[in-house]
Amino acid sequence: MVSIVCLVALLAVAKANSFGYNIALSRPTGSSSVFVNGVPPVAANSNLAVDGNFNPDFFGGSCFSSTDVATDPNPFWFVDLGSRVFVSGITLTNRADCCADRLSGLTIEVFEFNPTSSSETPEFCSMIIGGVALGQTVARSCSPMVTGRYVRIRKPSATAPLTICEVVVSGGNFNKNFLNIPFSNVARNRPVRVTSQFSLPSANLIASPGLAVDGNFDSQFVTGRSCYSSAIGNTSPTFYIDLGDYFNIQSITLTNRGDCCAERLRNINIGTLLKDPYRYLEFPKLCGTITGNVAAGANVTVSCFAPTVARYIKIQKTSMVDSNDLLTFCEVQVTGRFASRSEVTNKSVDNDVSQALAANGIIARAETNDNWSG
Question: Under a CB-based contact definition with an 8 Å cutoff, are residues 147 and 276 in contact?
Fold first, then answer.
């Protein structure tokens, strides 16, 4: 009866998920260790967690388990999804005959490369902190969705083995209606980050980055109070936008300051990235540049050299005439539409992380700050 209830619950979760289907079924798996018991020995191999058999009785022969914690104190399990895909969530079925506490204290992560050999920082999906009842199926969503090839479930500093009877990974196409939405400004009121921001205490003014995506096109820097500017002394000012999802980017439009200093909107590179630039090493894909002067209060549009899919926009001033040559603009518009699954996953070269690591002569990235502001 417990098995039937769990299976019904699992099917209900899968049906409610609008992002796709089980992309882990029968895929290659691996683990930090495998529990072996009995004579002749029976192994609770990692592949048993994706065999499509939801029997939660451990001795039914369809559950994975790591070995004892004295041998493996930080157990993990992973599945290779075969290529970069969307991962919207994960569903785990717990053991039913005993030891329910083993499915707790878990962190679920997504990697581009094999987690047993990769030095990358994984994308975080979710956690299972509290206990899960005997035979229960528990679902966790990745919010926001992430992309990658490998899903890893790890149990750091474990007091008991990691035991899982079935894993379902949800992923796939967006709702196809998304693709019928016309191109529009996808940057408005999105989180932003910058290397610095200008303040003018005498006018009680802070030119914060969120002002550049607030939908207010007033180009009067002081009286309008809706323009962003980097701070004096920032030699490589940079402005990032997190679009919150993957979009097909057509162009980026900047509104110049109108009251003075129009010449500051020059020598600018505009690039796109798939991953959080504060957490991952990835080469930005150049969309376009602004080299010459832009008239005061005018809009300048940079159309991407080639169709590009991205979640993050990077606007960087590449050279400065003097310390007062700041990065200043009053609004940013990013014209795009939702990207399809194939547009994101059909990336010709899937090694941005390894390229960046090699180019920088390092093996790991130290920056993990996740603070974005709007």
Answer: no
Residues of the chain with CATH 2.60.120.260: 2-172, 184-360
Q: 184-360 in CATH: which number?
A: 2.60.120.260
**Closest of 115, 101, 82, 95 to residue 48, by C-alpha:** 95
Q: Which of 17, 345, 1 is nearest to 168 (CA)?
A: 17
Dihedral sign of CA atoms 57, 63, 68, 74 in order: negative
Please write the tens of the pLDDT for every residue from 308-355. 888 899 999 999 988 889 999 999 999 998 877 667 665 543 444 444
Confirm if 208 and 191 have CB atoms less than 8 A apart: no
What percent of the chain is predicted at pLDDT more than 90?
54
DSSP 23-88: S-TT--EEES---EETTTTEE--GGGGGSS-----GGGT--EE---TTT-SS-EEEEEEEEEEEEE
Task: Check if CATH label 1.10.287.380 holds for domain 2-172.
Answer: no
CB 105 within 8 A of CB 156: yes
3-state SS class at 285: strand
Phi, psi of 351 (to 5 degrees): -140, 35
For the stretch 118-131, pLDDT in tens is: 888 888 899 998 87
